[in-house]
Amino acid sequence: MIQPDLSVNERIDRCLELLVAWILSTSVLGLITALAGHFLALQVCLASLLVAGVYAWFTRERGTTSRVTADWRHLALLTLVCLFFRLPAYHYVLGGQDEGVYVNMAHHIARTGGIEVRDTAFEQLDDPSLTATYLRENRDAGYLPGVYALERSGPLLQFQFYHLFPVWMAIFEGLFGATFGVYALTFFSWLSTVFIYRLALAVSGSRMAALITGALLAVNPLHAFFSKFPVTEVPALAFSLAGFTFLAFFRDGRGQASGARWLWLSMASFGCLFVTRISGFMYMPFVLAAAMASAIADRDRYCRRAMFGWCAGVMVLYALSVWYGLRWSGSYSSDIYRLSFERLFSDRWPAGVSIAAAAGLAAWLGTAATTRSEPRQEQMSRYVLTPVRRVVGLVVVVSLLMGLFKIYQLGWTGRFMPDAWLSLRWHLAGSRWVAVEASSLFQLLVYTGPVLLAGVVALTHRQSDPRVEFLRLFAAGFLVYACLLQWTVPYGPYYARYLLSENVPYLLLFTVLVWAGMRAGWQKTATTWLLGVSMFYMAVASAGQLGKNENAGLYGSLKRMLAPVGTSDLVLMITSQPGPPAISQIKTPVLYTFGREVINVSNSSLTDSAYIAALDARFDDVYLLSASPSSPRGFDLVNSERLKVWGFASSFLFPHEFTLAAERRLYLYRLKRSMLPLSQAQSFNTKGAWNAWLASGWSSPETWGTWSLGKHAELSLDPRQLPATAGGIRLHFEANALVSPQHSRQRIDITLNGRSVAQREVALPQSALAFDVVLPESVLREAGKLIIGFDLPDAVSPQAIGMGGDGRMLALGLKSVTAYPSVSPASSQSSPSTILNGK
């Protein structure tokens, strides 16, 4: 609820507060319902509006921020600049990379209402031979990039990444349409621009400094690109900026009890950050540092207790995010934790992380316990806080020198030649100046411009404002990380995104805040020029992205191609198709964006009549998506589409060169008829591939086979489904007859196209029956269907002969058919009374 006596700018601040309350409640409700499998975008939004309304009511008398408020004109200008460089967003449906996985996750959540993903095609294949073929061609090399198979021979799958960002895209898709999900990213990019402005304003009190900070982010080429490229760095940045902004609001209010809501909003913002990106563990040292600094420096007891509770709450939310990740994204979480902490603790990283976490908690709790009096606070400030503040600048300088030395080792020595990642994968070892361009330090220069120099210099100097000093510690920590740990960017702009959530925006923010606090003089003048030149440079670099849309048109091409395919149909994709885009890149959107069943097939399994027939029996229609313009046997062409994959060329500069990354024409074929395989028994059970032959007079298929129903039954065969062999085809049938002591015989008259060809009689103690029907070439060449009839004069119900309560009239239980090349009449006589021919 917005108070009527507030000024326009105060109302804007209040609207931002309520907007974040709605975003946080939407995030929580959306994620919970998606995990529970009951996600509905409209209902989530309406419920979160109710929650935000309740929040507005209970905070209606508590005022807004205690110092300078946002200027609505600044926010309008920043919004226009932000959207100018960020529209349209890239609807990146192609699989294989993180951005495609996120978009396909969102489509899956919007379509199914949950995050659960199963290999439903695998679940249809209950035959061991079919399963073996399927697993070999669909699981041996992994299921799909970004989709884990939890067990090789089971149906359970798991999306790789955390789910909150896909949930937000699913919300936008549910509200505005299938192609609008990616505009959730545009929304969060705007939100991050607004909140970096608001954070700068809260800390500096200068609207000009806030406007410059917001403008630097609004025109930044790295932020502009990833505001359209659907990965999680921009949403994570929005949540972290909101969290720090509300923390600054609390600090600005000097710990007033009415401002406790800012801490709750801050905690919730960081909680959403932790379930957006797995890298939340990198924030924990800074959360502890803030709480320890508060315990040492804050004289107000309420403020100290509140900051203690804030730190505890953020850590609890992070612990919950770890549990969430291990529960719903376990394989990915385990891999990331191992890869991240092995850099510090080698193969003993679980013990190292546990010891470091215990030490951090002990230091925090010990600091809180020993600073309950002002004299103790003074001592801790003198002997702990001041030395730490002094050493930050030294750490930055040493880290920069070490980072430069590592770049020299990479480019001009053999130090990293054995490194599989840097040498064998990316060929950076010994690459000289390419190694410089592929460094995080160079990428920071590319995406911040010459103001980077002013920022690095500022990091080496202590700041009088404790809030700016905390930002100094935060920016310095991530700069050290970029120098020593994540110190290479194999190619841009894709891998440069690791500099986006913290390094680039917070370094720019810190530099502007230092500039705002400078006295007039040459240093401020020089920094002003650096800021101006950098802003102009960034705007020019971002302008190079205008009019270039990655993955443009691909969604429409796939939608047109898959239009004939229904949700109960099956799409086959040949695994050996050369050239980009890869088979997995196309398979991912077919599965999760369009919700169609897909199975990889090799060329050999495509010619395996039994395998294809079994698949055909389990789905309504079978289609083949292929790059070959030639129709495989039994398939007819349905349509074709030329796929074009547009994208920015890999470069160590900002995104500017736009290229056609891949192009190929794909053909969609429909299986017109299955082919009966030679020498492979085909069942007439519930999963029988040839149950369509059961034309009339048959009961429902059962697990063992199918009973005739009544005194006459017919099989209807399409000769084009029979294998082409010289001399014709011999169909060998296995069956049972219904006989008992009360009904000891069954007579069977077999006809072919209405002509009697043989009679059989089964009598106790026999019940099994095997017979052949020979189809000569002359019969196979005749137009129309082949009708094999069975006259069954002795059909009887099991109920009538005391064999149970089944009242159906049964006689012949058909189990299987096997096709063989036809044999000569002479040789046929060697199998007494089992050969029937069409003569």
What's the quick description here?
The chain has 839 residues and is α+β, with helices and mostly antiparallel strands.
Note down, in words, how this protein is organized.
By secondary structure, the chain is α+β, with helices and mostly antiparallel strands. It folds into three domains: 65-89 and 182-543, no CATH class; 98-167 and 553-671, no CATH class; 682-837, Jelly Rolls, CATH 2.60.120. It is 50% helix and 14% strand. It is built from 30 helices and 19 strands. Strands 9, 11, 13, 16, 18 and 19 form a six-stranded mixed beta sheet that branches. Strand 14 (745-752) and strand 15 form a beta hairpin. Helix 13 (284-297) runs antiparallel to helix 17 (374-412), helix 15 packs across helix 16 and helix 22 runs antiparallel to helix 23 (503-517). The longest helix is centred in the middle third of the chain and has 39 residues, at 374-412. It is elongated, with a radius of gyration of 35 Å. The protein starts with 7 loop residues before the first helix and ends with a strand. Residues 824-839 have low confidence and may be disordered. The chain crosses the membrane at residues 15-34, 40-58, 161-183, 195-219, 231-250, 262-295, 307-326, 349-370, 391-412, 432-458, 470-489, 495-516, 528-547. Its main location: membrane.
